[in-house]
Amino acid sequence: MPITTEDTVRWLHQLAQVLHENRDYLTQLDSAIGDADHGINMDRGFKAVMEKLPAVEQMDIGSILKTVGTTLVSTVGGASGPLYGTAFLRAGIATAGKHELYESDVVTMLEAALEGIKARGKARPGEKTMVDALTPALAAAKDAEAQHLGLAELLHRATGAAENGMRATIPMLATKGRASYLGERSIGHQDPGATSSWLILKTLFQSFNP
After folding, report:
1. How many domains does the chain have?
2. What is the pLDDT of residues 53-87, one digit of tens each?
């Protein structure tokens, strides 16, 4: 059973709610190693996405995701706007014209999103960023596809891998972004970008597999 346009719209609605509910939590994480605005910025960005969604929700999945990307770039401050904006734009390009996404499509979409983030942020795994959640998530998705597992299991495994990657940022020394200015003091804190990346994937899984 594929991810449909309707599933995509439902995911984005649920994601806006999840990010609103986790606004203070994400901001609290960011206050330890960043500008204390990650939750505020993500909440604002997806509120703007909700305003744009009715105009595009009957279109193909790629057009919907590209609209999310352009909205985030134009409304979200800090690093997360350009990074997530680029991720959704690249995901939209990868799914252009599609009204249904199958396992290979989701892998392609995740890979495009991750490559967009890496290109925009010049980040690699191990630097205490959202890349540390998304890299293992993509690897788990590729592995699930290679095993011919269904889409629900693929998303479940990708979400679990993202959660493990998120938790693995806690002992890391930040060497990228604002957190890198703290040096050794960045150790012991969970990366807020990795956390929001996990929430995005977790919500996709839950909206597809309620």
Report:
1. 1
2. 999 999 999 999 999 999 999 998 778 899 999 99
E strand residue ranges, 77-200: 100-101
Range of the domain at 183: 3-208
Cα separation, 65 vs 45, in Å, equals: 14
3-class DSSP assignment, residue 191? coil
| Residue 181 reports pLDDT greater than 60 | no
pTM assigned to the model: 0.95
* Cα(41)–Cα(81) distance, integer angstroms: 8
Q: Which string of DSSP letters, residue by residue, matches 28-92?
A: HHHHHHS-S-HHHHHHHHHHHHHHHGGGTTTS-HHHHHHHHHHHHHHH--TTHHHHHHHHHHHHH
CATH number at residue 163: 1.25.40.340
- CA-based nearest residue to 129, from 181, 193, 82, 206: 193
> Strands, E, within the chain: which ranges?
3-4, 100-101
**pLDDT for the residue numbered 91:** 98
Q: One-letter amino acid identity for 132?
A: D
**Assigned token pair, 41:** 């910025």
Structure tokens that stand for 73 in this block: 């770039």
